[in-house]
Amino acid sequence: MKGRIDRIDLTKDGKRARVRDYKTGKVLAKPNDFQGGTTLQLPLYLHAAEQLLGRLHNGIQVESAEYYSLKNGKRVGFEGSELKAKETKLHEILKTIVASIEDGIFIAVPGGQCGYCELKIICGTWTEILFGRKAKDPRVKRYLEMLEEEAEESAE
User: Fold this and answer.
1) What pLDDT, in 10s, does the model give residues 6-23?
2) Strand ranges inside the chain, DSSP E
3) Is 31 exposed, middle or buried (0-12, 13-18, 19+ CB in 10 A)?
4) How far apart are CA 8 and CA 135, in angstroms?
5) Which of 42, 119, 121, 140 could form a disulfide with 65 if both were Cys (CB 3.0 to 4.6 A apart)?
6) How far is residue 7 CA from its own chain's centroid?
7) CB–CB of 23/67 below 8 Å?
8) pLDDT tens digits for 100-118?
């Protein structure tokens, strides 16, 4: 996992901040939603900025992280208060992903994200077939349950 925060804006009093990540295409994320662990960039940036700014600059509160589309000006964000409320869920998602990786299982879930994935050359046109095969593996069960839970929560 790698990333770089594009921009951090501070309020004039220097006590609060907002993280911004610029996107050149469509913003596909939903506000305050992990989407089954497929959209973790904003919550992780928010958490990292809070940790870094809190330590270095006397406890600056990071209020939100947002995607900003350079194409149409659309903004989609993750609020700091929502992250605090969902912190246990975020840790559970990260543990599930790490456990899968430690078991040697890398799950490429077919969908809209494939078009933007740096690793799509590895999956090629086989993403759905590979996903179907891996879905039968008992070690993948918790990850698939997590996707379903998140989909149900998003629909509510």
Assistant:
1) 999 999 998 899 999 999
2) 7-10, 16-23, 61-69, 75-79
3) middle
4) 39
5) 42
6) 17
7) yes
8) 889 888 777 777 667 667 7
